Amino acid sequence: MAPKIERSSESLGEDREDRREKIELFESLEHIRQLAEYNANSKIDTEEKLKLFLKSWWSKQYNRPLKDPLLLSYTIEELMYEFYNFIERQKSLASQLEDGDDKIEEDVKKAALDWAEQEELKELDMLQSQAAEQPEKSGLTKDDIKWMEDKMKEAKEVHGESFGEDINEDFS
After folding, report:
1. What is the pLDDT of residues 54-71, one digit of tens each?
2. Fewer CB within 10 A of the end CB, N or C, for the chain?
3. Which of these, 49, 41, 45, lies nearest to 76 by C-alpha position?
């Protein structure tokens, strides 16, 4: 049989005191949590709440404690400047990135159009060389071809460079 441990009334009083201190500490911590929650969710409608918000932002932004001497040396105007400066720099960066994306997209489109134009010119040169080599097969003479080219040039001057691009030059 295990020996019975008897506690003195003095030791019971100490246990109660320890429990009371723990309960008070818990209640204190819960109160602090509730205060932090209230401050985090409250509207910024007073100068004190604005200063608290700006200090919290600064502390998080620079990963420094709220009691940092540098933070405590700031005026509300200096904190507001840092806050708005940060926001404006973020907007500027986003705008620059968007402009860069637009430029890349424009460059890709331009490259594709340039390539297509080069391919069309190659095809046109090929068709013209074929037509020059075989005018008898199509029934056209060199004078007929020259006359058609002159008329196309005149029409392009009047109606624009894309005039006649949809015409099939295969007359056979």
Report:
1. 999 999 999 999 999 999
2. N
3. 49
- What digits encode the pLDDT tens for the residues 106-120? 888 888 888 888 989
Buried b (16+ CB within 10 A) or exposed e, 10-40: eeeeeeeeeeeeeeeeeeeeeeeeeeeeeee
Q: How far apart are CA 81 and CA 51, in angstroms?
A: 12
Q: Which residues contact 64 (CB under 8 A, 6 or more apart)?
A: 58, 70, 71
Nearest to 171 by CA among 124, 121, 135, 133: 135
State both tokens at 126: 């090929």
pTM of the model: 0.41
User: Which amino acid is present at 157?
Assistant: E
